[in-house]
Amino acid sequence: MDIGQLEAFVQVSAHHSFSKAAESLFLTQPSVTARIQALEKELDEELFERTGRGVRLTEAGETFLAYADRILRDLREGRDALESLRDTEFGSLRLGTALTISTYVLPRVLKSFRAKYPGIDLFVRTGRSEQVLEMVLADEVQVAIVRSLQHPDIESVHLYDDDVVLVANPSHAFARTGAVTIEEVARQPLIFFDKTSSYYTLTQSMFRQASLVPRVAMELDSLEATKKMVEEGLGIALLPAISVEREAELGILSIITVKDTAVVRRPVSIIYRRNRRQTRVVQAFIEELSAMYQVTPPLVARVGAGSL
Fold this sequence. Notes:
It contains 13 helices and 12 strands. The chain is of the alpha/beta class. Helix 10 (198-209) links the parallel strand 8 and strand 9.
C-alpha cells in the first residue's frame, strides 16, 4: 500500500468518479483505476461499486475511508511541521479559493506574495465557497479566500466587500442616462450568472425586496460568457464589480447606478483552521494578505520557534 493509492481512493470517494478523481490528481484515468485495483487487491476487499451515475463506496470502502483520510491528514501535518523548521524562502502553500476570486483577485495577491517569497511552491485548488470550506476542514488546503462563511472550527477574517454592479453595452439606453430605477432594470432582458451561485441569490433577493419579477433573458454558468453576452447587446447583467473592472476601463461595458436600492455586497474573507498551529509559510501569507487589505488578523499560533 502506498500514498498514491490512498490519494486515489480518497479522491474517487469524494468525486464519485474515476475521471474526476484523475483530473484532481493530474493523472490519467487508467492510472487511477490501476491504483484502486492494486489497493483492493492488497486489502482483499472491493471498495467501490459502479452505479448509473458513477461509483459509490461499498460497506468496506466506507469503513476504510476514515482511516485513509486520517493517514493522509497526518502525512500533510507532518510535512507542514517539517517545512515550518525551514526558512520561509522555501516551503509550500496549499491555498483554496472561490472560483471568481481565483480569476479576478488571486493573480494580484500571488504576484505580491511571490515577490517577497519567490521560493515558495504554491498549490491552488478552486471551487464554490462551501466546497473550499470543506477543503480547509479536511486539511486539503491550509488557508483559503472565499465568500464569508461561519463555522465553529474556522477562523474568518474579513478582507473586502465584493459589490455587485449593473452593466450594459455602452450603446444601451441605460448607458446614456447612467442611473436607473430597479423597476426599469426589471423590465429589461437580464442575463443571470450561475443559478447555483451566491451572486444569483443576492441579485434575486434585490428584486424580491422590491416586489418585482425580473425579465430573464438567459442564465449562464460562466462569468466571462455572461460579460460577452452583455457586450453583444443581448441583455444587461448584475455582476461582481471586480470581474468587470477591465471592461469598464476599456469602455467595453458601462456600469450603471441603480438609484433606489441598496448596493448588493458579498463579503470576502480569508479562512483557516481555528486553534491550529500554522506553518511559517501560512503565517507569512496571512500577514501579506492582511497588509494588502489593511486588516488585522487574530494572532495565529505558529509551528516551530523563531521569527520569519
